[in-house]
Structure formats: C-alpha cells, structure tokens
Amino acid sequence: MSVTKHPISSFQELESAADDSDEIHFKLGGHQWLLVDDGNPATPESKTLIDCDDPDRSQDFANTEEFISCQIDGQDLADCWEQMSEVAAWNVQFESLEEFVQAIEDGCEIQFSLGNTAFNLGDDSDQRVYRQLTYRVQEEGQERLEIKKFKDLDQLLSFEIAGKPLSKLWQKMRNVDYG
Fold it and tell me: CB atoms < 10 A from the CB of 87, how many?
C-alpha cells in the first residue's frame, strides 16, 4: 500500500477532498481530527469525523454535504477553517496488481471507490461462491444495492466496471481499505 498526503489550503479544497480522499487529517482546538470514508456501499453513514483525542465525540455523516455543514464545539465547520492547522488529504492505494490479488487470495475484505461508486469485495454470505462484490447503482432516480458473485479469481478479475476489467483498474481505486 502507498499513502500520498496532499496539503489543503482552503475550505473549498476541503470540501472537494472530502469527496475524493480516503482520510482528511487536521488539528483544531488542540485536538487531532480525522475524517474517514468507510467505503462500504451497504452502510448509510459513509463518513465519520473522529476526535482522535476523544473518540466519544465522533460524528457520522451520510455524505460530504452533511460533513461540510457540521458543527464542532457549537461552531460551523466553515467558521472553524481559520483555526484549523495541518489540514491534509491522505490517499491510500495498492502499489501493484500483485498486491491487490494477494489481498484477495488472503481472504481480506476490500473496500474501494472507483469514480463516485463505493465497492465492497468480501466473502459470499452463503459460502457458495469464491467472492462477492457489493455496490450501489443509480437508475432512474432510484438507488439499489447490486451484488455480483464470482466462482473464481479469474472471473472476478475479468469483471468489467465502466468497460474495463477489474484487473486493469487497481491503479484507479481510491479509498482503499482492507483487512
């Protein structure tokens, strides 16, 4: 895995990075804060803001808009901007196709984003197939959960997303998390 850090120098950049980054780190009021994207399309809350010094003060958000309009200690996030320091976006990615395949073969649950879609690659709940890929699909204004099941690694790696096989997309994966 490789981690890339990008400093954020404006509130507009923070808003954009909240959509595109795996994690956002910042200091505010003497506390270290962390915004993480859970990357799991099956959960309604997709982002969590954590006070690393007091995890009980965590807040969950369904989307970036909710995060951007949140309050910390009774103050709107936008109003906190001038007091924030060390604001940076962190992106985590696989370093190679081999690393991605090894994580699959090790049986890891892998969460990642491609474009604006979050994917979760995990074990099949009924244990009848090799792995299953879960994601949300928007059609005609409706959102539904899609589950694709694969009988082996070759079928999984040849599954196409936006016209490209998964084996060719590992470099474009964002919000990567596995374990």
Answer: 21
